Amino acid sequence: MPATKLSKAAQDNASRVFDLDVSSLRELNQALHNLTPGSNETAWEVLNPKGNHSVAVGVDQPVSIDVRGSVGYYCGGMNSGGAITVHGSAGPGVGENMMSGSITVKGDASQYAGATGKGGLLVIEGNASSRCGISMKGIDIVVHGNIGHMSAFMAQSGNLVVLGDAGDALGDSIYEARLFVRGEVGSLGADCIAKEMRPEHLELLQGLLDRAGVTGVKPSEFKRYGSARTLYNFNIDNADAY
Amino acid sequence: MTYRNPPTTPRKSATFDDYTLSEIRRAAATGIYDIRGAGAKRKLPHFDDLLFLGASISRYPLEGYRERCDTSVVLGSRHAKKPIELKIPITIAGMSFGSLSGPAKEALGRGATLSGTSTTTGDGGMTEEERGHSKQLVYQYLPSRYGMNLRDLRRADAIEVVVGQGAKPGGGGMLLGQKISDRVAEMRTLPKGIDQRSASRHPDWTGPDDLEIKILELREITDWEKPIYVKVGGARPYYDTALAVKAGADVVVVDGMQGGTAATQEVFIENVGQPTLACIRPAVQALQDLGMHRKVQLIISGGIRNGADVAKALALGVDAVSIGTAALVALGDNDPRWEAEYNELGTTSGAYDDWHEGKDPAGITTQDPELMKRVDPVAAGRRLANYLKVMTLEAQTIARACGKNSLHNLEPEDLVALTIEAAAMAGVPLAGTNWIPGKNGF
Q: What is the domain range of residue A210?
């Protein structure tokens, strides 16, 4: 089992810089979990992540964490209140099951970005791969670039905003999540349809763009997609849809 | 006098029996497969096909009421800082709030806690009823992630990553609209009244290498405190167990095809997966081959009904068993006292399995406020505790008769099989012979 005691270097460093070449992942996450409400240690920096998995998972205090490099799987998993910035790219499942707070990925994100997220804001400044926002349950996701196939599969709630294109089978078996895509959609998945962009949606979208720091893009440039709700209750005549 | 040919007795087909014919008619009339709860109902090789040998000249027994026979078990000692310590090797399996009523979940927690064992959440998140009344609660980490949240993950005593279940290895969950009440809908972030079909695969990992990374994440989130179980349906128990161990599991749960479900297609329940008895030895063998037997604990479930089943499972090498259907029956499920109401639903007590419809006269598999009042959580919890006590006493009775001062000292050598099938599956000799089918080239 990894050590849980902080290394001396980590304890001595009042600015809370964690160099993962020196300290272990376990030390980093334990130190983050040891934070209590009202702590003054509100700014954290993680050096040399080098594709490590599970960087800054289970954060439950409103601190900022700057990760200087690319991360592996599940960075910021279950984040509850932290403001995490990945100054690089993120592996699969970045921000999975996020509860609140924010995660920004300066580069690209791999599969399942924001999977099952319950809340908070996930911003991918590059592209996101397949299954972005899969099973999302309240999270808001803004992708500056494109997203891959099967994104927003079984998406239940929340908003997915894509400034570029979406791959095939967007929103397959979608529930009540809202999808806004500015570019082309490869194809729509089962029960996902284009929907009218009403004033409240334009307003909502503008708010999301503002929160994600997107400028020079108008909500009117997007199309909205959502559930046709024809598969909500099983009907044998719909069996061909599956 | 006219000769009359002797009449032919009407003969029903064994292949097209009454049940099969009724199912064809039902399918033709409705155009949809049959959905039901519970596990496989067909006759399968099971623990009834095994017998204990007991003591004799070469083995001496322990005194039934005087000599101690330990029943405790520790789960999760491989990696977890806080393993689960149970007084009895019988746990309560995962069953969802949503499928079960709030009072039923509370009763399970109460009964388990009285008995010194754990209970388990299900595909619907953690409720206050069960957290509040369960001293040791296992929090399931399911493909749907309904209600999954950081706070509940941290207040769980163990985490069970659910890959599959015995009733439907490879299938997702199902909860029909009539059971999606306001509270259930809110916990699952779904519109009220829709048919909720949960995913069969996890959304953010695929395969054993990803699972290893996922387990690492869960450990990091919970600071390596909690045991992490991996639950699989009885599909490929040897490889699934080995891969779960490789991925870092503290505990492997293998659920055979008699294991229940809230709602799944009948064709799935009866035709996919292996009998519980057939799953045990391959799973134990995998642990032994890896040098991890008793280091990674094995829990088996699916059709455990009494202390003899518990003792037999333990003798075959498992560390603990889990009960679901039997626990519901102890709470009052399928009780003949509701026979008239079962009849109105077109069934009879003991056969009622339309748990997904939410009309359970016993008030257990329902979200109907009036029906669920029929479950008194305190009294039902007491019944479950009584039942667990009886099972434990029964298992101890057998263990002492075999000369064992701990249930975990029971061993395959204590068993024989009544049928060739059971002998082959359990890897014990056919009664009266020294023949283990499949061993020594025969």
A: 69-241
In a domain, B189, yes or no: yes
Give me the number of domains chain B comprises. 1
Which structure tokens are listed for B372? 């669920």
User: Residue A209's pLDDT is what?
Assistant: 98
Q: Which of residues 77 through 136 in chain A touch B, CB cutoff 8 A? A: 77-78, 80, 92-93, 96-97, 99, 111-112, 115-116, 118, 131, 134-135
- For residue A49, what pLDDT is reported? 98
- Dump pLDDT digits (tens) for B70-84: 999 999 999 999 999
Q: Residue B237: which CATH number? A: 3.20.20.70
Tell if the CB–CB gap between A72 and B203 is shorter than 8 Å: no
Whether A58 is covered by a domain: the verdict is no
In a domain, B303, yes or no: yes
Q: Which of B431, B418, B411, B410 is nearest to B70 (CA)?
A: B410
b/e B374-392 (16+ beta carbons within 10 angstroms → b): bbbbeebbbbbbebbeebb
Please check whether residue A45 lies inside any domain of the structure.
no
Question: C-alpha dihedral over B332, B335, B341, B342, to 10 degrees?
Answer: 110
Is B15 within the bounds of a domain? no
Of A135 and B4, the one with more pLDDT: A135
Mean pLDDT of A41-58: 97
Number of domains in chain A: 1
φ/ψ (deg, to 5) at B138: -95, 125
Residues 6+ apart with CB under 8 A from A169: A149, A150, A153, A186, A187, A188, A189
Residues 16-75 of A with CB under 8 A from B: 25-26, 29-30, 33, 53-54, 57-58, 60, 72-74
Length of chain B: 442
CA closest to A59 among chain B residues: B221
Residues of B in contact with A37 (CB under 8 A): none
| Whole-number Å distance between alpha carbons of B329 and A197 | 52
Contact B360, B371 (CB under 8 A): yes
Whether A10 maps to a domain, the answer reads: no
Contact B190 A156 (CB under 8 A): yes
Within-domain flag for A193: yes
Number of other CB atoms surrounding residue A14 within 10 Å: 8
In a domain, B10, yes or no: no
Q: Which domain holds residue B290?
A: 35-426
pLDDT at A241: 63
Task: Find, in chain A, the residue whose alpha carbon is nearest to that of B144.
Answer: A135
- Residue A242 tokens, joined: 């599956």
Chain-chain contact of A57 with B81 (C-beta, under 8 angstroms): no
DSSP states along B108-175? HHHHHHHTT--EE-BTTB--HHHHHH-SSEEEEE-SS-TT--HHHHHH-SEEEEE---TT-TT---EE
Q: Which residues of B touch A57 (CB under 8 A)?
A: 217, 220-221
- Show the 3-state SS of B74-125: EECCCCCCCCEEECCCEEECECCECCECHHHHHHHHHHHHHCCCCEECECCE
- Taking the CA atoms of residue B32, residue B38, residue B41 and residue B46 in that order, the dihedral angle to the nearest 10 degrees is 150
